[in-house]
Amino acid sequence: MVIRRRPSPAGIAGKEKMMRRSWIRASTFGLLLAVLAGCGRKPGPGELEGTITISGAWALYPLAVRWAEEFKKLHPAVRIDISAGGAGKGMADALGKVVDLGMVSREVYPAEIEKGAWSLAVARDAVVPVMNRENPAADTIRRRGMTREEFIAVWIRGEKRNWPAPPELRRVPELTVYTRSDACGAAAVWAGYLGGVQEDLQGVGVYGDPGLAQAVRRDFGGIGFNNINYAYDLKTGSPVGGLMVIPIDLNGNGMVDPEEDFYAGLDEITSAIADGRYPAPPTRDLYLVSGGPPGSEPVRIFLDWALREGQAYVEEAGYIALPPEKLRAGRDKLASPGPAPESD
After folding, report:
1. CA distance from start to end of the chain
2. Which are the contacts of 132, defined by CB distance < 8 A and separation ≥ 6?
3. Which of 274, 309, 325 is the last residue of a domain?
């Protein structure tokens, strides 16, 4: 017997609206705090001052917030406003010069470079497939994993309808596929791993990393994908409550071999990403992008700090540091960015 626990589209839409309103309220409150923090104090002689605005990828948002906190300790007269909304929004905002910096969690496309996108790689992370931890098939998946071909059948071809499970396990939920409804790096990178683009991904569209994780946690048969900072709890290092990260059977032998078994905690998965055991994609670099070479002094100083002192916070925030040569190339690029864009 198959247990169907798929939520109705109306229910999903209602929950998505509620989550969007909650995130908007939280973002508005965060921006208000940033404004208040910059009020009531006059900068001293020669002190760096100004405003830096940042928007975009959920993947980079937690690290950007941490960087802003630390940077403001050094430069308290600088106000930094940050909002999440997906890599597509970050790129559009940067190219439209709505913000100083867009957070982009995928490669910058040639067409975007032609439009003036100027980018710096600042850290690295990865996208991982996730399922509901209470799914009766979870133990089976933990032992055997899933192959890239199985993921293609799930998201690209829409052929896989049931969870893999041994015959004796009769009560297995129908597989419910979730994807992202917003233009984002996570979906672009996951689709790239499966040989497609975000528009090829089938499933119920959910807004944002937190929303997709919550949808899978609420659905026994749910399968989705998340950036590692939304799949793992930074404080405990374990997968977020209610989620299980699906091991990828990389060699396709029908089992998770010891060298493929690195999903139990954040330290294990980040080590696997760093040394190349986890594939790329879905491993990817994370970028800060501007609509042309940055001309603002606070922005340039912030970027230089992020590539130097800011790297001390990358690993503790659950990300993977870039190789020294890539950081050095970024600093060289920042030192000779070309002419600053003309103001509109």
Report:
1. 63
2. 138, 216, 217, 219, 220, 221, 222, 242, 243, 244
3. 274
Domain that holds residue 189: 127-274
> Quick check: 12 pLDDT over 50?
no
Q: Label residue 169 by pLDDT band (50, 70, 90).
A: low
Contact 268, 102 (CB under 8 A): no
Residue 69 φ/ψ, nearest 5 degrees: -60, -45
Q: Are 118 and 330 within 8 A, CB to CB?
A: no
The model carries a pTM of 0.84
Q: What does the CA dihedral 233, 236, 242, 247 come to, rounded to 10 degrees?
A: 80
| CATH code at position 89 | 3.40.190.10
Residue 325 belongs to a domain: yes
Residue 102 and residue 185 in one domain: no
Q: What confidence tens digit (pLDDT) does each residue in 309-330 have?
A: 999 999 999 999 999 999 999 9
Residue 16 lies in a domain: no
* Angle ∠(108,109,115) on CA atoms, nearest 5: 95
Domain boundary among 252, 274, 296: 274
Q: Does residue 218 share a domain with residue 202?
A: yes
- Widest CA span in the chain: 75
Number of alpha helices (DSSP H) and beta strands (DSSP E) in the chain: 12, 11
SS3 content of the chain, % helix, strand, coil (to 5): 40, 20, 40
* Residue 20, domain member (yes or no): no
150 & 165 share domain: yes
**Is the dihedral angle over the CA atoms 29, 106, 323, 299 positive or is it negative?**
negative
Provide the pLDDT confidence category of residue 172 given band limits of 50, 70 and 90: confident
